[in-house]
Amino acid sequence: MLLEVSINGVSLQRVGEFGMREGILEAAADEWRSLGFSVPGEIGDATRVSADSLPEVIPRIDELTQAVDFTVPPARLRERVINASEQAAVRRYESGTGLVANYTLVGTRSSEDTNLSGALELRAFSPQGVGSHSMLFTNSGISRRSIRLDTSYVISNPEAMNRLRLGDFIGQGPQWARSVRLGGVQWTTDFSLRPDLVTFPVARLEGLVAVPSTVDLLVNGVRQLSQTVGPGPFEIRQPPMVTGRGDISLVVRDALGRETVQTLSYYASERLLVEELSSSTVELGWIRRNYGLYSNDYASLAGTASWRRGVRDWLTLGLHGEAASGVAVAGGDAVIGLGSFGLLGLTVAASRNRGALYGYSYERMDSGFSFGFSQQRRVAEYSDLAAELGETMPRAQTRAFAGYSFGPYGHLGVAYTAQRAAAMPTPWNDGQRPTYNTRILSASYTLSLTRTASLFLSAFKDFDDRNTHGIAVGLSIALDRNTSGTLSHSRDGDLNTFSAILHRPAFAIGDWGLRLQGDDGDYPRQQAEVEYRARWLRSRWGMERFRGKTVTRAQLEGSIAYLDGGLFASESIEDSFAVVETPGLADVGVYYENRPIGRTGLDGKLLVPDLRAYERNAISIDVLDIPFHLGLDSDRKDVYPADRSGVGVRFEVSYRRAAEIVLVLGEDEPVPLGATASYLDGEPTPVGHDGRVYMRGLADFGQLRVTLPDLSTCVAEYDFAGTSDQLPTLGPVPCR
């Protein structure tokens, strides 16, 4: 039997399917769950469950109204899960098959020489992966040269959150391990494949309501979520949180306006992983040397492996190892959450020849006061893969920072860096490795004077080199929404510089940008640059004069893309893009996230760059640009593109016969204003003056039901056959 369901006197606005056995109400387990009752998970959905087997559930059936009201403590109801993340589940990510060629061309000319240089990236993508190849080239009066940068093929798996790279890549590891470039194979966990997933521990947000209520979630005083929940327990998952220390508030408001507020302090950091969440990386390849100088300079075979896991929400442990001919390193680290007091990090590692490395760090980031420090020390001849490239590791390195916000009176930041390292042996120091020390203290202060003007001050001092010190002070003014000006004075050692800058960037397609800079003092310099953003490329032209010499410069950046049989010119496509198509329709407005992005060309296509990979991207078209006699399957589509790939977004356009029909009664008397006309199974359309009504989706022959102002009806039969006009006028058509 079908019964309208209420819980504790509050209607669910739902009808449930129940049965009776020996006078006891029963229903399928999935029916109880859908109504909000808690049923043990081991019970199958189709299993019949009686009401008396549900703890503290008392049904009262009203046979007259065919309704049932359940009395049940709210805590006995099923917990409702609210996903604060917009993208709570893994989506079916899209990728077409096509090609992209990004290019940058830079030309400079002076009285002494002319130089042309540039960069090129070729990229092929498909649902199976992305292959890419990049290179640099130069052409001057002295030499011509091209250098290969990276060649790789990448297969991504968003569901498992991992990537497989074949070719050139940068090694990945913990913060204490130095990265090297390798050519080979890399398999790694990549959380960026799931941007909706919060990987660091967040506050557990739960509540219990007895009546339908509204739940608001506020992070640092800013509302992030508002949702209505029914009676029973609830949990908010994946709340959007800002890293560092903050406050999160849960506001529950019932139908009577009564309000309860629960506020929790938290400390969030991407260095921590959620309990039981882990990541790993395995790499095997040849160490690459002289990157950017030589195309194929590979050294010995090397391998690395890294692993991290959230053991508890407050504790994340990691292991890392690397090996090559003559090199072996093994180490581990721990990141410990101290609640709202910050984060503590510990590191220890060992290498061959009894070398060792240890370090510790602490940080506490807050909107008011932030503070942190770290220290790392090398013991004996600690050696890693980076040492194979000749990179010297400091014997000791210390960093510290502090920042404080004075509210309307500005922000102060202080940083200190000290290191003790061995210099590279040279003929001038007899092949020895003398140590050198660096201790640098820097500070900066910014103050907003008005809504459009701000003051900045910075200074630095190297305590181990009395000639290395400096100070700068300046004023920045926003002249309008897009244009700013800066006046500054800086002193670096004994050199003084006075600067004036006028800057207007080109934000959107069709914008012009401008940058003018004049420096006076010990090294006078004048610079001017103009920028223009077109749909097919971005261009910059500039001139600089320094020490009596003038250098002119021109730069072009853009891309050529191929997808769905079309070739498109665009600005540089660094990540994902879409090709929007309105088949057979040109000059249709296209919107990206409700912002106009362009209009389709003569082929009915438009390339939309800069999509966000693995996130929702809303693309729509202007329905006012669609002729009346045409219909759309939809005027908005959400796409979830894979990274560095292109997707086709096709808005299907169909011909829908449309006509203006003149409806008459009796002796050509127009159907009166206020009547409506409809297909026999369709929605009514108002009839206008002189009995005229506009109808779409007409068949060759058909009938319209006309409802007159006095609610009487008549039927009009129309004949569309033989009419070739796209928007004809039919009639007069008698209504009988």
Q: Which key phrases capture this entry?
A:
736 residues, mainly beta, Ubiquitin-like (UB roll), Immunoglobulin-like, four-stranded mixed beta sheet, 1 helix, 56 strands, 1% helix, globular
Overall description:
- Strand 26 and strand 27 (369-379) form a beta hairpin.
- Among the domains are: 2-76, Ubiquitin-like (UB roll); 97-114 and 480-656, Outer membrane usher protein FimD, plug domain (Immunoglobulin-like, Sandwich), CATH 2.60.40; 205-268, Immunoglobulin-like; 658-734, Immunoglobulin-like (Sandwich), CATH 2.60.40.
- The model is unreliable at 424-429 (pLDDT under 50).
- It is built from one helix and 56 strands.
- It is 1% helix and 60% strand.
- It has 736 residues and is mostly beta strands.
- The two termini are 45 Å apart.
- The strands form ten sheets. The chain has a 24-stranded antiparallel barrel. A four-stranded mixed β-sheet has the order 2-1-7-6, with no helix packed on it. Strands 17-16-19-20 form a four-stranded antiparallel β-sheet, with no helix packed on it.
Briefly summarize what is shown.
The protein is mainly β.
List the helices and strands and how they pair.
Elements: E1 2-7, E2 10-17, E3 19-21, E4 24-28, H1 29-34, E5 48-50, E6 58-62, E7 67-71, E8 80-83, E9 98-109, E10 114-126, E11 129-140, E12 144-157, E13 162-170, E14 181-189, E15 205-209, E16 213-219, E17 222-229, E18 232-237, E19 244-254, E20 259-268, E21 278-288, E22 298-312, E23 315-324, E24 327-337, E25 343-351, E26 355-364, E27 369-379, E28 396-405, E29 411-422, E30 435-448, E31 453-462, E32 469-478, E33 484-492, E34 495-504, E35 512-521, E36 525-533, E37 537-546, E38 549-563, E39 566-570, E40 576-581, E41 589-592, E42 595-599, E43 605-611, E44 617-621, E45 630-632, E46 636-639, E47 646-650, E48 653-655, E49 658-665, E50 669-670, E51 676-678, E52 685-686, E53 692-696, E54 701-707, E55 713-719, E56 729-734
